[in-house]
Amino acid sequence: MSTSSTMLPDPAAVGVRAAEILAAIEADEAYERLRESSGKYVDCWATFTGYPVVARWNLEADKAALFGEAMKALALKAAVFALTGDEVAAELLLSLPVDEMTHAVLAQHNVVTALQARIGVLLPHMTDLEEFGWEPGDYTAQCYQAAGWGVMNDRYWIGTAEAKRRLAALDQKYASAGIHDLGRRHDFTFTPAVPGELVAA
């Protein structure tokens, strides 16, 4: 989380407010549409560095549980913002896969905009304030526990050192296929399509 001029609220207060926010979201008329559409977002866009750090990642098997974690994360961020009015303070540290799923949720612009208006809560997120460095037991984790959501799912909540180790392994795998800088650059050209043949060469 970036440095903020606002003192962070007590995790207990954040947890109580976050639990209320999550309950309101889940009770909203558009919740099921939000859940389903967020799970389909990977067909439009997915990074090389978010979901893939999950061991044996499988969209169909993982999307429901990861969506649940992302909604909790968004509720925590919304609670901090509601208590402080400070978007910098609200940019909590998240694990890479959880963060990527929050992007999938927030990409459902129409649903999210209407939902925020109905429940009177802003789900804050700004990429220019985003930092990575989530660790077990940190402020985000303390707020999560205070919300009464139990143990964080360590399949998706992956500490920074382990995430970096996995990213390094992924980078090597990608490079062997001609994909470099964790998906930011590749060596492929695209030849005219021939039926039955791949176009990348």
What's the SSE blueprint?
Blueprint (H helix, E strand, L loop, with lengths): L10 H17 L3 H10 L18 H26 L11 H11 L2 H11 L19 H8 L13 H17 L2 E2 L4 E2 L15
Antiparallel strand pairs: 1-2
Helix pairs in contact: 1-3, 1-6, 2-4, 3-4
Question: What strand line-up does the widest sheet have?
Answer: 1-2
Let me know the number of strands: 2
Order of helices and strands: HHHHHHHEE
Number of domains: 1
The profile of the biggest β sheet is:
2 strands, antiparallel
* Radius of gyration (Å): 18 Å
**Which structural class fits the helix and strand makeup?**
mainly alpha
Q: How is the quaternary structure best described?
A: single chain
Query: Runs with pLDDT <50, length 5+?
Result: none
**DSSP helix fraction:** 40-55%
Provide mean pLDDT, rounded: 90
Strand content: under 5%
Task: Explain what the structure shows.
This protein has 7 helices and 2 strands. The chain is mainly α. The protein has one domain (11-183). Strands 1-2 form a two-stranded antiparallel ribbon. Strand 1 (179-180) and strand 2 form a beta hairpin. The radius of gyration is 18 Å and the shape is globular.
